[in-house]
Amino acid sequence: MPSIKAAIIGFGTVGEGVYKIVNEKRQQLKQHTGYSIEIASILVRDVNTKRAVAPSVLVTDSIDDILNDPEIDIIFEAIVDEEPAYTYLSQAIEKGIHIITANKKMFAKHGPALLKHAEFRDVQVGFEATTAGGIPIIRTIENLLAGDRVHRVQGILNGTSNFILTAMRDEGVTFEEALHHAQKKGFAEADPTDDISGSDAFYKLMVVSSLAFDEQPEWEEVSVVGIDHIQTDDVLEASKAELRYRHVAEIRIDDEGKLSGKVGPVLLDAEHPFYAIDGVDNAIIVETDYLGKLTLIGPGAGMYPTGSAMVADLVHIIRQLKPVPVLS
Amino acid sequence: MPSIKAAIIGFGTVGEGVYKIVNEKRQQLKQHTGYSIEIASILVRDVNTKRAVAPSVLVTDSIDDILNDPEIDIIFEAIVDEEPAYTYLSQAIEKGIHIITANKKMFAKHGPALLKHAEFRDVQVGFEATTAGGIPIIRTIENLLAGDRVHRVQGILNGTSNFILTAMRDEGVTFEEALHHAQKKGFAEADPTDDISGSDAFYKLMVVSSLAFDEQPEWEEVSVVGIDHIQTDDVLEASKAELRYRHVAEIRIDDEGKLSGKVGPVLLDAEHPFYAIDGVDNAIIVETDYLGKLTLIGPGAGMYPTGSAMVADLVHIIRQLKPVPVLS
C-alpha cells in the first residue's frame, strides 16, 4: 500500500479539524484513494502548548523541519495572514510538495502566482477551503468551466457578518453585543476587522473571480462595504416588513468581458434563496449559460466543515497523482 | 489531437441538449479535456422526422449501427423507459463503450448491476443527469464519500410537481389546470403519471440511495405519495398561514445502518431552505458527519441544464481515461 506523508502548517481550528478527520477516517481514506495517509509533522507557534496529537507526530516551530523533510508529499496550510504563508507555500512548491490552503487573504493576492508556479513544478494546489468553508464551491465551478460558462457569482461569504445580522434580528441585540457573542462562540477572529469591514468576503470573491473568469477586477474598483454601520433598529424595521439584511459579495462579467464586483449589505425578501440563510451559514449562486442558476448553501466556517473541505482537496489531489512506475 | 466519438440514444429534449452543447462548446471542450469530441450517430424512433443535425451525423433507427461501430467510445442515453435502454447499455458496456445516462427509471432499478458490469469491463458510467437535472448532486455526493459520511438526503426531486404546486398557489388554478400548463410548457411528460404520483422522485431517491449508502431500501417499504390529491384550497389556506406545500423525497440511514425512505408532500415555513424553491427548480439537502448540511438548488429539468449534466459526465469520464500508450 503506497503512503502519503503530510504536514499541517498552522494548528488553529481548521488545522486541528484536518488532523482529526484524517485520523478518524484513516481506513475510509485508504479504501477510497488507495493510499495510507499520515500527518507526519505540524508547524505551531509555541511547541509548549498542550495539544491532542499522537506522539509520533513531529510538532515543531521551525518550517525547515517540514520543508527539509524529503518524505513530505503534501502540506495543509491554515495560517490567517498573508505572510509567512505565501513564502512557505512558494518554498514547498519549489520542492515539489503539493499544497492545500485555507488562507483566503493570501490566496486572493498570490493564488494566480502560486498556481502558475505549481503548474511549472508539476504539483497540485487545493484551495477549496479558502472560500465558503465546507461548501464545495471551488470544485463545482471548476467542473462547470469545461463545458459551460459562468457569468455571475453572488454569495454570502462571511459567516461572522451573517451571524451578527441574524443575532441583531432574532435577539434585538446591538452590533457590538452580537459581535461579542460571535467571538465567544469562536466564529469571529480575535481581530474581527476583516469580517465586519467586508474584506474577508472581498478576498473570497477575488479567489472566485480568478477561478471563474481567469482574472480579477482592479481591487480598488470594487466597492467594499461592511456591516459595521448597520443599526439594530434598521434590522428590526426591515424584519417587520419581512425583509432581511444580508451581506452579499458579487462578481459578474459582461458581454465585452469586463468584470465588475461589489461587496456590501442588501435587503432581501422571502423569495430570495438567501433569505433563509441564517447564522454562520454561507450561500453562493453561480449563474451559467447552460446550467442556469445553481445555489449552494452550507456551513461557512468551523473546524469540521472547513477541515472536510481540505480533506476533499487531499482526495482530489491523490486521484490526480500519476501512477508510480513499477520496475519489472 | 486525440478524438472521442460519441453516440446519442434517444433524441428528445435532453438528447438534443447534449448535441447542441457538444457542438456549441467544441473548442472549449477540446481545450479543457485535450480531446476533440464528435457526435457520430444518433438513434431515433423515426428517421424521417426533420432534425437540426449536421449531415455528417448518422441518424439511424437501428441500435446495431451504433453498437457495431468500433469507433464509438461513449454513448449518451436519454430514453424514458427502462427498456430497451437497459439492454442497449448492457450491450454497450460489454463492447467496452463508456455510458452516460439520464434515465432515472432504468438506473434506479439496474444502476447497481450496470456499475458492476462496467467495473468488470473497465468502462465508466456517468449518471449525473438521472437526478435533479443540472444540479451536480451525484458528483457532490461522490466527492463527499471519500472522507466524510452521508447520513441523510432530502430533496425536491420532481420539477413538475413543484411547478404544479407553485402554480396552484400563485395563480389559484386547479391541479388539472396547472398540470395542463406544465405539459404545454414541456415540463411534464405526455403521460405525467410518474411525475404526479411521486414515482419519478422515488426513482431519483433510489439512485441517490445506491450512491450514498451503497444500497437501496426495499422498494415496497418506502411510502410514496404524489401530489394528485392536493386541492387548490389546501394550498391557498397554507399560503395564508405563510406555509407552502413541497413534494419532498427523503432517505436516511440510522446508527444501525438501517435505511428508511419516504416520498410525499409536506408543509414548510419560510425558515426552511425549500420554502423559496418555486417552479421547476429542484433542491437537495445532504447531511454528513463533518460538512454538516449542504443544500444545492437549481433547475431540475430542461434541455440545457440536463444536457449540461451529461456533458459534465463526459468531461469527468475523459479525465479518467488512461493515457494511450505511445509506442516508441
Automatic annotation (TrEMBL), chains A, B:
Keywords assigned by UniProt, alphabetized: Amino-acid biosynthesis, Methionine biosynthesis, NADP, Oxidoreductase, Threonine biosynthesis
- In short, the EC number is 1.1.1.3
| Reactions accelerated catalytically | L-homoserine + NADP(+) = L-aspartate 4-semialdehyde + NADPH + H(+)
Q: What class of enzyme is it?
A: oxidoreductase
Matching entries from InterPro entries are given as: Asp/hSer_DH_NAD-bd, HDH_cat, HDH_CS, HDH_short, NAD(P)-bd_dom_sf
Record-stated family: Belongs to the homoserine dehydrogenase family.
What name appears for this protein in its UniProt entry?
Answer: Homoserine dehydrogenase
Q: Please list every transmembrane segment annotated in the UniProt record, as residue ranges.
A: none
| Domain Aspartate/homoserine dehydrogenase NAD-binding positions | 10-126
Q: Name one GO molecular function term.
A: homoserine dehydrogenase activity
Gene3D superfamilies referenced in this protein's UniProt entry, alphabetically: Dihydrodipicolinate Reductase, domain 2, NAD(P)-binding Rossmann-like Domain
Top-level division of the source organism's lineage: Bacteria
Protein's UniProt keywords contain Amino-acid biosynthesis: yes
Pfam families per UniProt: Homoserine_dh, NAD_binding_3
The family database entries (PROSITE patterns) matched by this protein are listed as: HOMOSER_DHGENASE
Homoserine dehydrogenase catalytic domain location is: 136-315
- Which pathway does the database say it acts in? Amino-acid biosynthesis; L-threonine biosynthesis; L-threonine from L-aspartate: step 3/5; Amino-acid biosynthesis; L-methionine biosynthesis via de novo pathway; L-homoserine from L-aspartate: step 3/3
